Amino acid sequence: MTQDKNEFFTQTNPLCRMESNVKARYAVGVDVGGSHSCSAVVDLGTGDIIGTPCVSPLDSGAGALTVSTALADNIMQAVSGSGVPSVEGVGLAFPGPFDYRHGISLIQGVGKYNRIYGLDVDMTLRSMLRSHGMDTFRFVNDASAFALGESMAGAAKGAGRVVAMTLGTGVGSGFVADNRLVESGDTVPAHGWVYHLPFDGGIVDEAFSTRWVCRRYMELSGESVSGAKEVADLCAEGRREAVALFEEYGRRLARFAAPVLERFGADMLVLGGNISRAYHLFGPYFEEGLSAAGCRTAVRTSSLMDRAALVGAASLLA
């Protein structure tokens, strides 16, 4: 019987034997939303999600004990369903405002999680999950987690310098260099957040969110819409106002994004969020605008979508 050439090489080459014996490392990534939490175990070497993400309802109007217990249960379900022997810790993608360094919720006045304001989420979850082998927790903004996830295992995998933006109810962002967040310095806005930057007499969060889409379509047509998907459907029907709206959106987004990308020296921009699903409608105008501004950054839409934040949050343990 002949021995397989690759098998022989692996058995006789000490470096290959060392690589094959490297122990896989895992962490839990959690995406905390307004009505549910989603947890998954992630392979820290590959960014692959192990098993099926676990989604559980989460009452954002509840008190600290209810919210903490729901999060802990969701995390434990993900670990038990994955079949992995152990995890390095847990990374949680939380909406802001939040003290991400210390794990303390500062959410107030945004219609959710008001009753956990000031809660030390880090200490609370550690006390609940330490007996299950989890005593290390990291916290990150949800848009920053999206950026990390796409850089580690998504559309921007292999790119050196990445900007990611989520376009939806608001505008989220993250800046990544060599798979690490860049949150300060001359090349990025404070915390890596663009939502508050000035643009066209207002701020970015108003200029490129669902609110702008709805308001602008009303101005163009006199008709109300619920969001970008409805306008995209009207494009398919040949409504000129809908087509004009996405052309305007793409050109305006390019005017804002080009200097941001150039300042960071971005190799790639990744777009996510609900509005990015209409990229085929505004993308050509967006890319044309970038090119006209001399910006050569490659543009991709998210390949991980809802899973990006899970991978990104877990990558904090890598």
Strand order of the largest sheet: 3-2-1-4-7
Order of helices and strands: HHEEEHEEEHEHEEEEEHHHHEHEH
Q: Strand portion, in percent?
A: 15-25%
What low-confidence regions span 5 or more consecutive residues with pLDDT below 50?
Answer: 5-12, 15-21
Rg over CA atoms, rounded to whole Å, is 22 Å
Q: N- to C-terminal separation?
A: 43 Å
- The number of helical runs is 11
The largest β sheet comes out as: 5 strands, mixed
Give the overall shape.
globular
Structural class: alpha/beta
Overall average residue pLDDT: 93
Quaternary structure annotation: single chain
- Tell me the number of strands: 14
Helix content: 25-40%
Would you write up a description of this structure?
This protein has 318 residues and is α/β, with parallel strands linked by helices. The chain is built from eleven helices and 14 strands. It is 40% helix and 21% strand. The strands form four sheets. Strands 3-2-1-4-7 form a five-stranded mixed sheet. A five-stranded mixed sheet has the order 10-9-8-13-14. The model is unreliable at 5-12 and 15-21 (pLDDT under 50).
